Write the structure tokens for this entry.
Amino acid sequence: MRVQLVPSGTVELTYEIRNIVNVAEKLQKCGVTINWENIGDPIVKGEEIPAWMKEIVSAAVMDNDSWGYCHTRGVLKTREFICDLTNSRGGAQITTENIIFFNGLGDAIAKVYGCLQSEARVLMPSPSYTTHTLGELGHANSASLHFKLDPKNGWKPNPAEIRSQIEKNPNICAIMIINPDNPTGMVYSRETLKEIVALAKEFGLFIISDEVYINIVYNGEKTVPISDLIGDVPGIALKGISKEFPWPGSRCGWIEVYNENSDDQFRKYINQILTAKMNEVCSTTLPQTVIPAIMKHPEYQNYLKERIALYEKSSNITYNFLKEVPELLVNRTNGAFYMAVAFKNGVLNSSQSLPIADTEVRNLVESLVNKPDVSPDKRFVYYMLASTGICTVPLSSFATSLQGFRVTLLERSPAETERIYNTLANRIKEYLAS
């Protein structure tokens, strides 16, 4: 072309969670049966939406108002309902003006990073969910900045390292967390959140807290929304219905803005986000309208508890099988529905493999893993996919130097979960011994 069309470094942007689907689909055509453990979509894994929830949505479809534009910030009655939920906890108090709806959190994340000036950087965890790292990298056109989640310490962060990164990088304007975390399933403690808030206050930063899994916790764990502890520090919480209802196809999420007027620069930044949303007029109306009715329904809390109980069971089954592999760093998950597993240093190499009987399948996988600069954990994931049909995601694709893999905990049948992770554990041992 006459001029360069994309910024330097854009070719490095990849989304391995989806990329691996293309490979798995090719293997399906070769006769490989796939277990989709790569993506957090409960519907794909067979989750049944209860009749009462479908009836609420069906009734909303019959209402003409659900067919039109809504306010740019979102449906007023729904924003009032959300305000009441947040304010009832006694932490940061918000009004309907502090809520903006988006077409899913992917849309929200793109605008949260895209409305920052390129020099303003957001410090985020490593490993970290790809949409955040790509959003930050895309706006800054530079490698993202991270604090580490430690697999040897339950994937917990070290506040001293967060402080060190802030001190070394004067362009850091915000700290981002995902709570409960994706990809690790770790839940931030109240004490750690308090330390993060204190650092933000000390250095004049704001906080971004992705809380789409905030009500999906188990194994006796508790989550604390950032609004309960943020005090007078500016902040944004990202929330949605895609995982909790679950309704990922609704593309419906929102941000809650805390202490918007405590800092003039932060106020102008939030106005930029709102202006960007105004350019789209509004987000999809229908899913917004049903949120209060669904969440207030007498069956909702029991329905959520039943789903969480299944995730807890899957978490413990998965943990119990994988912890028996001595070369792995495995932590029991306590929130969301993911588990990140790291290999110990030096365990993986570029010559390991698994036997693949089908010549076409073997040739396809070898053509992929023998390309230049393929990470050892990607090699592992592709061989495991071809040999067993178990589709996972390489951990290195989550902005970390750690080698490992991420799985989901969404199988509906405990017996099938046992089969999958017993198989995976045994084949890992075989792969490492090859």
In short: The mean pLDDT is 94. The first strand starts at residue 35 and ends at 36. The two ends are 47 Å apart (CA to CA).
